């Protein structure tokens, strides 16, 4: 959802339009049209006939949700935010304070070279913002401000040329290259001086064991060069010189790896056909056939410290102290002398070709003390400075590459606009929670930058980009941009939102043409929440139609019982459920985004099925994706939830800091966001979820306190506090509430017949002390896989029950053996004493899916009713089946509920007669079935 605007935001919406300077641009096509449309947009979507309450209007009370949230709050308080900021600071060339990057998707060594880094910081900011709204704890504000302040410094640094990062050196100060900064030192072309004999001497302190990272590299290309690498493929230093590419290298290889985080001295000498490599004053390699010298290379275009002429090699990470170039080969004794003193104080003196002490503590240049005036310059491999407003944990290069890319390759480009969305959402939520203008400036600047870039691209380029799997993924950026536009009122921001139209997707879904087969699920779900917000801003009906129809293509046609969707991150053909069950089902991000889409659809059209789905996915997949364990370092959230037999949930997925852990942090700090909604005119209060909570409805001057242990309790009590107010109380009657839904007000029954899958309305003038009691008995039921009715999942009320068993094949279970007259299958199970919602059947314990354990589970089982049994009385007759799989017992119990035993027996007799007439059951077996039904004793 779009987080609610703070009161300050609403009051100052007009003045905040100037919060960040606009960037000049030339808009084309769609962008220019959208700029004109923007003027009519209002701060609150008029299309929303129902609206949410702010997170700080609804407080969680003790119960299931509060317990789960507390576990995530422990993580929000305990995790070092400087670790998240490390990748941003490194990218900007700023000091990282020794912080270690989170790793996984947030590190250079993670999946796809860390090309998604920065996304997790956005998630974390949103979590902190929601945590503050939900608890009011100052610690969350303090952490938000630390992060916003750091990101502001990062953006400013990216807008400038790189500046030296001065650290303690071997002798005095040194210049550090933080890993991820992409910085190197550019030396003038005359540095080698065409020497026929040479010594190159350097003090280095590597901080990362990256193969082929260069101490220096002088060359024109991949053919003519001379380099010294801290590590070759074997992990030892290597010097090489060539005029014929790698195959013609004349080289020197060390014998041991350089230590990390410790100063090492490296020197190379060439003279008279002999080359020698020294490490810490000791000659470790000698080549007496080294015929090439710098003179053979001539004047070179690239003369670099820390950067390779091979683009795929890493930039050197670590620090430089002295670097000297001599026009002669120093003796072993002279090199040994350099181990204990500066070159200037040694007998060799400073390099006569070049000499850099790296004593500078500011600026971006390094003085040459050789007397030749060869000033060196600190540069970034990607050029720079960045464009105004740009903020990321990596350079603009991924965004640039995407614009010409025709095929996806996430090792090169991994969803840069997706990552931009997470950062944008995070800083925008930070502003909405704290009113920190720096956060708004960051958000507005990011969108100004994106608009200035995307508005110049042809329409065909945009469509190609957004259609690319993974590389073109942009998440929920449209929703975030629309939310920002409500605050700033800048026409460019609405124009930007429309630049993310993916016409093929919109047009097909608007026409209710299902094209989801083969699409990446989570790449597309959040798009539609954004399109709904574009409908709010523009009134274009196709956005609303597309979102509504898309939702209907997922629910129920690609939905598992727990509310999740996708297998291996992708969708398969419509109505294939059993055929997709695996260990990589139900990506957690998908459930998160389906909840957002469902609630946003409900704001437009109050269809109860949206909130029925919301309850299903929230109470099962979302709650169950969070492990019931505290951990300051990890959020402990699943990526996939495998639904195959015996699956054990992995709460530390992949390499860590994944998208699902990010959305999991958000989910666990906004459980209260959809418990209550209000009608736009203030005339009604919707109670969507039954959860222990307290609503402060300031406009009405009332509070609503919900007291319940639901779903461990099958009822709830609403108590009105404060003054008096007239409004309609609309209570959601869950679609599963077939055993009744009874409402009393102050002890008196409310007239009317609540219908499952609807809202039941109680209208009156409410007064402080009024009490509404709601009772909704649970029944045990099954839900069948659309493509295989024999594969089923078990529900007790809203709660999915999973079997805990290490078996790796489907459990075979029968449930009719003691079914009650009501049709309730629960009597066939045995409750577990002292463990609410736990039952056993055939020796297997069934537990709520929402329990975040590491037990092997069975979410689906194979239904097996081999014989006709009533009330635990076995007829001995085989349970026959029709060609479509429907059994005799299925058809009998489809008539439930039965008012009394006689009604059931009548149903048995009529069904048996029909099956006998159809030749599906013998006369004798039919009579036995009827007699068994008459003899049996039934639960209610």
Fold and architecture overview:
This protein is α+β, with helices and mostly antiparallel strands and 940 residues long. The protein is built from 23 helices and 39 strands. Strands 29, 30, 31, 32, 33, 34, 35, 36 and 37 form a nine-stranded mixed β-sheet that branches. A hairpin with a 2-residue loop joins strand 11 (264-271) and strand 12 (274-279). Helix 16 (521-538) runs antiparallel to helix 17, helix 16 (521-538) runs parallel beside helix 18 (588-604) and helix 22 runs antiparallel to helix 23. The two termini are 43 Å apart.
Search tags:
940 residues; nine-stranded mixed β-sheet; eight-stranded antiparallel β-sheet; 39 strands; elongated; disordered N terminus
In one word, what is the shape?
A: elongated
Catalogue the unreliable spans: 1-42
Nearest-angstrom radius of gyration?
Answer: 34 Å
Q: Helical residue percent? A: 25-40%
Strand content: 15-25%
- Helix count equals 23
How far is it from the N-terminal to the C-terminal residue, by CA?
43 Å
Q: How are the SSEs placed, and which strands pair?
A:
Layout: H1 7-11, H2 30-37, E1 50-52, E2 58-60, H3 64-78, H4 81-91, H5 119-135, H6 138-158, E3 166-168, E4 173-177, E5 183-186, E6 198-206, E7 214-219, E8 225-229, E9 238-242, E10 250-253, E11 264-271, E12 274-279, E13 282-287, H7 294-297, E14 302-305, E15 318-326, H8 332-337, E16 354-356, E17 365-366, E18 376-380, H9 397-402, H10 416-434, H11 437-454, H12 459-467, H13 477-488, H14 491-498, H15 503-510, H16 521-538, H17 541-554, H18 588-604, H19 608-624, H20 659-667, E19 676-679, E20 684-687, E21 693-697, E22 702-707, E23 715-722, E24 725-733, E25 742-745, E26 748-749, E27 758-766, E28 771-775, E29 780-785, E30 788-796, E31 799-804, E32 812-813, E33 830-831, E34 839-841, E35 844-848, E36 857-858, E37 861-863, E38 867-870, E39 873-878, H21 888-893, H22 901-917, H23 923-935
Helix pairs in contact: 2-14, 4-6, 5-6, 5-10, 5-20, 6-10, 10-11, 10-13, 11-14, 13-14, 13-16, 15-17, 16-17, 16-18, 17-18, 18-19, 22-23
